[in-house]
Amino acid sequence: MKPDTATAMRNLIDQVRENVPFDLTNEAICADSCEGCSVKLLNYLESELDAWELRLQAGERPNFGDLDKLAATSRKIHRVLKENNICR
Predict the structure, then answer these.
(1) 55 exposed, middle or buried (CB, 10 Å; 0-12, 13-18, 19+)?
(2) Could you report the per-residue pLDDT of 70-82, keeping only the tens digit for each?
């Protein structure tokens, strides 16, 4: 059985938090040259995840477009972080 959209959003948020190193210091992130500002990308993604967690706690039900948008944003940011040797 497929999960409802709220459960799917929680699962997506958990996956992103597991795979993206939000706890790195700015010095560790900016040690090498990079394409795109990894610090800003991490801050943006974390704020998006935090916002969705608050919205879910308030009882909001995301639609498939919301899930797709967060998934796409997360994939794009992860790709840049990987290119910058921040993620594996």
Answers:
(1) middle
(2) 999 999 999 998 8
